[in-house]
Amino acid sequence: MLRRMAREADRKTALGSVWLREEPPPTRARLSREDIVLTAIKVLDREGLDTFSMRVMATELGTAATSALYWRIATKNDLLELVVDTVLGEALIPAEGDWREQVTAVVQAAYRALWEHPWAAQLLPTHAGLGPNYQALTERVQSILNEAGFRGTHLDSAVSAIFHYLIGSAVTDSAWLAVVRRSGLDEPRWAARSADQMGVDAEHLAAYLNRESTAGPEARFASGLRVILVGLRPRQIS
User: Fold this and answer.
1) CA 157, CA 150: separation in Å to the nearest integer?
2) Alpha carbons 42 and 52: distance in angstroms, whole number
3) Would you call 199 exposed, middle or buried from its count of C-beta atoms within 10 A (0-12, 13-18, 19+)?
C-alpha cells in the first residue's frame, strides 16, 4: 500500500512542472482546478506569499481536509505555477499600430498584471515559462516582430531582450514593494524613515516608489521599454 502511494506521488510530481503532466480526470468533487486557482489568487492578493499554504487554501475553500484540494492539484508548487500563468493571461490583449506600438501594448499589459499581483513577480524566476499563457505571450511578441521583419538569431535575441527586461523590472519593483509592505508603513512614511539610512533624498525615494509618479515604477518601465524598442531594427542575423 505504501509503495503504491509513493509511486502515485512520484507520478504526480514527475518532470518538475504541472504543465508537463496530465490534469487529473473529472471527479464528483465540487472543487474544479479553476475554482482553486481563482481562490488562490484572491488569497495571495490579500495575504502575499509568506503565509500561503495548501492548508490555508483548504480553509479558504471551506474544505474540512486538504485531500479534496490535493486530488485536483498535487502540490503547492503546482498551484503556484497555475496562478502565475493565470495572471499572465491578463496580458493577452488586442494591440494595434506599428510593431513597436503593438509590442509596447502587450508588454506593458504584462507589467501591469504583475504589478497588480506583486507576489506573481516574486514567483517568476522559479514558476513561469511552461504555462500556456506565458507561451502565448512569448509567441505574440515573436509574431509581431516576425511580421515586422525580424529573422533568425536576431528575432530570438530581440524577444529575449524584451522578456528579460519585463521580468527583471517586475521582479525588482515587486521586491521594493515587498519591503515597504513588510514595514507596515505607506510609501511616503517608509521613504521618510529610510532615506537617511540609504543616503538618498526622501522626496526622490517616495517618488521612485509611487506608481502614479512620473519617476515611479510604471513610468520608468515605459521609458526603459522605449529605449529597447528604439534600439531594435528588423533584420536577420544568421
Assistant:
1) 10
2) 11
3) exposed
228 contacts 165 by C-beta, under 8 angstroms = yes
Closest CA relative to residue 103, chosen from 34, 179, 165, 174: 165
B/e letters for 114-129, b = 16+ CB within 10 Å, e = fewer, are bbebbbbbbbbeebbb
> Residue 64: what are its φ and ψ, rounded to 5°?
-65, -35
3-state secondary structure of 11: helix
| pLDDT tens series, the chain, 238 aa | 434 433 454 555 566 787 777 776 665 667 788 989 999 999 999 999 989 999 899 889 886 556 778 888 888 999 999 999 999 999 999 999 999 999 999 999 999 999 999 999 999 888 877 899 999 999 999 999 999 999 999 999 999 999 999 999 999 999 998 899 889 999 999 999 999 999 999 999 999 999 899 999 999 999 999 999 999 999 766 5
CB atoms within 10 A of CB 135: 14
Query: pTM for the whole thing?
Result: 0.85
Strand partners, 237: 152
Report the Cα 68 to chain-centroid distance in Å. 26
Residue 50: partners with Cβ closer than 8 Å, 6 or more residues away: none
The CA–CA distances, whole Å, from 58 to 25, 53, 77 equal: 20, 9, 15
The H helix count followed by the E strand count for the chain is 12, 2
For 42, the grid coordinates are: 484572491
